Automatic annotation (TrEMBL):
Residues 11-79 form the HTH gntR-type domain. SMART domains: FCD, HTH_GNTR. It comes from Rhizobium leguminosarum bv. trifolii. This is GntR family transcriptional regulator. Keywords: DNA-binding, Transcription, Transcription regulation. GO terms for molecular function: DNA binding; DNA-binding transcription factor activity.
Length: 242
């Protein structure tokens, strides 16, 4: 069979195949839970190579429209038009992971120092930030800004201004959670936010108890867990292009 991608750019074909599948999903031709045609069937239908099909499916996957189940096939998991414009850039995810790797040792030490040095007023400020995160979870609002505020409050409680300066200089880029779970997936967002809240609570309580080792351990678990979540996302994004 003569493959069309020998005479046209692969990138153009990826876009064409991806858009064709996207429209089939958004139009209701394939509903949530439906299985898409196999990779072989898609190569035959669109007269393209397996590489083109894999890259097109990877794009749909990053948009939150499909998932690939090992040994079972490609399944539709969403048909929300709002997801069709969502792109998860591998380079951005890799950059987020790099930021987390820098943050981790800095904030582990900050948590330990905050436990040893925090004043009663600083302790209350940390608790207040923690309460605000819970309030935003309960009212189904983004916690990104409140999350940053908590980490900054912990840094401030070290009484070493360089910790606070480090976090504030990065801004909310250090809290890039929207790339892990799309805002449009309400149930998943709520579950994710509650997980983050539980991890924060362990940090906050250890600081309140002046237990520097527990504070360091809790911050390590929180940030290493975030790294693991990002590595899993990056692995998923690369699975069809490796």
């Amino acid at each position: 069979m003569q493959m069309k991608d020998r005479s046209r750019g692969t990138g153009s074909l990826v876009s064409q195949v991806g858009e064709s599948l996207r429209q089939a999903i958004l139009s209701g031709q394939y509903a949530a839970g439906d299985k898409l045609p196999s990779e072989h069937e898609l190569t035959e239908t669109h007269s393209v190579s397996r590489t083109v099909v894999r890259e097109a499916v990877a794009a749909l996957r990053s948009d939150g429209l499909v998932e690939v189940r090992q040994g079972a096939g490609i399944f539709v998991i969403g048909a929300d038009p709002a997801l069709s414009g969502r792109k998860v850039d591998k380079a951005r995810v890799a950059s987020d992971l790099e930021v987390l790797e820098i943050r981790t040792p800095v904030e582990i030490e900050a948590a330990g120092l905050a436990a040893l040095r925090r004043s009663p007023a600083q302790e209350e400020a940390i608790f207040e930030c923690h309460r605000k995160i819970l309030q935003r979870i309960e009212t189904d609002q983004s916690i990104r800004e409140a999350d940053l505020d908590l980490h900054v409050a912990i840094a401030e409680a070290t009484n070493n201004p360089l910790f606070k300066h480090f976090l504030e200089s990065q801004g909310t880029v250090i809290i890039p959670q929207s790339r892990l779970v799309p805002e449009t997936r309400t149930a998943e967002q709520t579950a994710y936010r509650k997980l983050i809240h539980r991890e924060h609570e362990a940090i906050v309580m250890a600081i309140s108890d002046r237990d520097d080792q527990a504070a360091r351990n809790a911050m390590r678990e929180h940030l290493v867990g975030s790294q693991a979540r990002y590595r899993n996302l990056l692995k998923d994004l690369r699975s069809f292009t490796s």
